[in-house]
Amino acid sequence: MELLWILIKILIVFAVVMLHVMYATYFERKVIGHMQVRMGPMRVGPHGILQPIADGLKLFFKEDIMPTVADKKVFYAAPLICLISALSAVAVIPFFEGFAIANINIGILYIFAMSSLASYGVVLAGWSSNSKYSFLGGLRSSAQVISYEIAMGLSLVGVMMLSGSLNLTDIVHAQMKSPFKIYLIPQIIGFFVFVIAMFAETNRTPFDLPEAESELVAGYCTEYSGMRFALFFMAEYIGMIVMSCLAVVCFLGGWSGPFDVPGIPFFWFLIKVYFFIFVYYWVRATLPRYRYDQLMALGWKVLIPLALFNIVLTGTIKSMFG
Amino acid sequence: MQENKAESKEIVREEMAYEPYTIAMGPQHPATHGVLKLDLELDGETILNCTPTVGFLHRGVEKLAENLSYAQTLPLTDRLDYIASMANNVAYSIAVEKLLGIEVPMRAKYIRTIVMEMARLTGHLLWLATHALDIGAMTVFLYCFRERENLLDMFEEICGARLTTSYTCVGGVRQDVTGHFLESLHAFTEDFPSKIAEYETLIDKNRIWLKRTQGVGVVSAEDAVSLGLTGPTLRGSGVDYDVRKHMPYDAYPYVDFEVPIGSKGDVYDRYRCRMEEMHQSNSIIRQCIEALPKGPICAPDAPDLVMPYGVQKKVAADATFASGVIKLMRDNEHYIDGDVYVSAEVPKGELGFYFVSDGRGVPYRMHIRSPSYIHIGALPFMCKGQMVADVIAIIGSVDVVLGECDR
Questions:
Q1: Where are the domains of chain B?
Q2: Between chains, do B142 and A36 touch, taking CB under 8 Å as contact?
Q3: What pLDDT does B315 receive?
Q4: How far apart are CA A309 and CA A157, in angstroms?
């Protein structure tokens, strides 16, 4: 019975996340379109509302092309590694009070582990394609993820210190009891570092170097087509959603809000996550792209020292005021 | 046994020998603006060597011109810098006029200056759009196209074509401009400075943009001159050279404008030069609209083929193709025997036409000094020691178009 309940939960979360991924692409095109004085998709259904379905069908029925020199097994496995690890990370996220597929006490670490695993997919895709652009994309990605993983981990240490837990549900509970109700104010430096690292971690503008289309054609997924390309695409969007969820849980008080919305326990959670996803699109429409060495310099010389300073500051304040 | 082992170790070391990573960037690559191919030798992400390969878009314009009359070659010049074909038309026309000794009426001169500056705006708008897109700022791209679209619509109004205009002819322009065109152009020039400010809010002070452009692809003034750079690419390095100022043609002596100059010669300075040039072009257009004189639009003695003005020419145009005008034109023996080089300032730089004439109605040899070809030659110099991402920024900042380079 327990097992059945978990399976049903997984199914619900999976369906909801996949639906969000589909419509995240639609809203990205719409939001960026309107920012760029154009309409975005308008043809498929009213205001292009069925566009994601058309895209999905198109990608599904496209020919699956593989370079003859590619390392077949790895080439097949790489997008799956990306997608599965991105999806697995969703398991520990508490969407509302008492609803998480796995309420484990190392939730944050688990999400880090999964997002690091996803970078294996990228590196292996770059390597197995046996294409020079893919290879450079894979290299860039591995360097980027290693640098920003550290900054991201350190930026969350402050949250862990304040809440005294790695369990995401407990972190939300701790925030509700804290004087400001959210950790955004006491952890503003941590939040700043986390948001920047979040963009880098999900390979989004201005850190989309691994797939910089003007330099590396399409980076690590240059040689992928059809459904395999779609898997990378989905993994990227799931990654965005997971990172937004993590930011909401750790800094913005999770599902808690200024007032309770009866009947919809996840109302505030969704609003906050949508806000972050909107910020992703907004930044993409606004900013140019960093150069590889500048990205490294920003990560190692600015973000990591800032995050370390934040830890020291948090520790000092905590030990002084209890 | 021992020796064998030592040998095999050495072989392994030899196989592991250092070798640069080569990448063929292009001819099909999203950021090379056409069919430019760059063979990059990389050490990590640093460029050790960069070898441009050109010629993928070669159509033999120079050779074709040897079998076509002077008026027939004009449409081919549309296909040089197809982003700003008006400017090529003007450059070609003034060169032929110099060769034939034709004086263009004032009204035509002013109209040509207007369309030349409009072409500069379309060229610079497309440059800014793609340059920003290459560096990753995608919104600027669409903003620029919005304004470029207005300009192209106006081109369509005066000559019926948006890109391949063939608007000028030897001796003047093909059709007079309408009052509606001048009105809409005037409205455009009033609005345009605010649009430039809009682009600048997105990128001009953006820290990522500054990091990507400042100190990248630096060319000193001496190097820029010795590499043969012209146009904004040269002026970004602080050399004051503009054909419009130093060898004025058409209505440029009568208008008041400044030549923006950079100082450091990096990508950012070249970017600033072009942005300022857009302001200057805008002001030139306004001055020309205000001072536009009345009068004929084509010189009476111009060897016009497409639209014969005089009675005799009209008779000739009614005859069959082979025996009619074209033949008349080719067999004409009154052309100057000699050679002439005339250049004009097009958006990309100095576009020159060199004609050798043996007195017939077709040139003995036509050579095009295309700025893009020379600028591509400067790419290895600029790219050496930079990173892969900088190559994109540098290609964007020298603003090459392959139609002009390969001719």
A1: 61-101+103-300+340-353+361-406
A2: yes
A3: 44
A4: 11
Q: Encoding tokens for residue B391?
A: 């190559």
C-beta of residue A242 within 8 angstroms of C-beta of residue A115: yes
Percent of chain B with pLDDT over 70: 86
Q: What is the ipTM of this complex?
A: 0.80
User: Is some CB atom of chain A closer than 8 A to the CB atom of B48?
Assistant: no
User: Which CATH number is B61-101+103-300+340-353+361-406 given?
Assistant: 1.10.645.10
Question: Own/partner pairs for A293-301, CB < 8 Å, 24+ apart?
Answer: A293/B45, A293/B387, A294/B211, A294/B212, A295/A144, A295/A147, A295/A200, A295/A207, A295/A209, A296/A143, A296/A147, A298/A196, A299/A144, A299/A147, A299/A148, A299/A150, A299/A151, A299/A197, A299/A200, A300/A147
C-alpha to C-alpha distance for A291 and A208, rounded to whole angstroms: 10
Contact B45/A292, CB-based, under 8 Å?
A: yes
Q: What is the DSSP string of B330-348?
A: HH---S-EEEEEEEEEETT
Residue B270 exposure: Cα atoms within 13 Å on the Cβ side: 33
Looking at CA atoms only, how far is residue B29 from chain A in angstroms? 7
Closest by Cα among B114, B224, B101 to B168? B114
- Residue A289: its chain B contacts at CB < 8 A? 135-136, 208, 212, 389
Distance between first and last Cα of chain A: 44
Which site among A196, A203, A289, A292 would you substitute to test the B interface, given the most B Cβ atoms closer than 10 Å to its Cβ?
A289
Alpha helices by DSSP H, A178-253: 188-201, 213-216, 226-251
B43, closest residue in chain A (CA to CA): A136
Please tell me the distance from the alpha carbon of residue A104 to that of residue B294, in angstroms, as a whole number. 85
Angle formed by the axes of helices A2-35 and A226-251, nearest 10°:
100
Point out the residues of chain B with pLDDT beneath 50: 1-3, 6, 305-328, 330
- Please judge whether B387 and A293 are an interchain contact, meaning their C-beta atoms are less than 8 angstroms apart: yes
Q: B120 near B371, Cβ under 8 Å?
A: no
Could you identify the residue written with the tokens 């200056």? B113
Count Cβ neighbours within 10 Å for each residue of B273-287 and write b for 16 or more, e otherwise.
Answer: bbbbbbebbbbbbbb
Of all residues in chain A, the percent with pLDDT exceeding 90 is 1
Q: Which residues of A touch B217 (CB under 8 A)?
A: none
Q: How many CA atoms lie within 13 A of B260 on its CB side?
A: 18
Query: Does the model's pTM come out above 0.90?
Result: no
- What pLDDT is stored for residue B314 in this prediction? 46
Angle between helices A72-89 and A226-251 (to 10 degrees): 30
- Cα torsion angle, B205, A37, B185, B191, sign: negative
Q: Is B24 helix (H, G, I), strand (E, B) or coil?
A: strand
The answer to whether B144 contacts chain A (CB < 8 Å) is: no
A46 phi, psi to nearest 5 deg: -65, 125
The answer to whether B143 faces chain A, any CB pair under 8 Å, is yes
- The answer to whether A35 contacts chain B (CB < 8 Å) is yes
Interface contact flag, A132 B23, Cβ < 8 Å: yes
| Contact present, B115 and B289 (Cβ < 8 Å) | no
Closest of B66, B112, B119, B115 to residue B93, by C-alpha: B112
For residue B186, how far is the Cα from the chain centroid?
Answer: 24
Residue stretches of chain A with pLDDT short of 70: 210-216, 322
CB atoms under 10 Å from CB of B351, counted, come to 30
Q: How far apart are CA B30 and CA B336, in angstroms?
A: 46
